[in-house]
Amino acid sequence: MHLILCLCLLFFAIHGLFADNSFLKTISNT
Question: Is the pTM higher than 0.85?
């Protein structure tokens, strides 16, 4: 149970980082 929760948190954290990176990319492009 704890393992699944940790994996979910890691997944969301990585997803958030990638989302921020793409967001910054679009801003620097404009």
Answer: no
